[in-house]
Structure to design on (106 residues):
């Protein structure tokens, strides 16, 4: 049968000693992964002149471009673009079900 074999008592003791030693030193254990930084969930204020100015500088406005610029999730960026389109700041140019392309309104 396959699967991981059972460790001997000596192997378990060695692993425990190594773990205790790293904790005494105050260091991180070797098994921990680096901390991930997640993008923000709350969108910036759509009424803000700073946000509108940033969007107007862009040639083609896509959800991915907005998410990258403002460090947002794609779903939040899509909602933000829909709201900007309703306000008349940007206008819909082309797109499909998955991707919408906007341009700044003149």
């Amino acid at each position: 049968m396959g699967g991981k074999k059972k460790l001997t008592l000596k192997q378990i003791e060695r692993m425990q000693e190594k773990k205790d030693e790293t904790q005494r030193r105050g260091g991180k254990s070797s098994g921990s992964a680096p901390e991930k930084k997640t993008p923000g969930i709350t969108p910036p204020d759509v009424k803000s002149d700073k946000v509108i100015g940033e969007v107007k500088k862009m040639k083609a406005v896509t959800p991915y471009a907005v998410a990258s610029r403002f460090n947002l999730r794609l779903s939040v960026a899509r909602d933000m673009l829909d709201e900007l389109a309703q306000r008349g700041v940007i206008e819909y140019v082309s797109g499909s079900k998955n991707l919408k392309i906007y341009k700044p309104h003149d």
Q: What stands out?
A: The chain is about 45% helix and 10% strand. Strands lie at 90-95, 100-104.
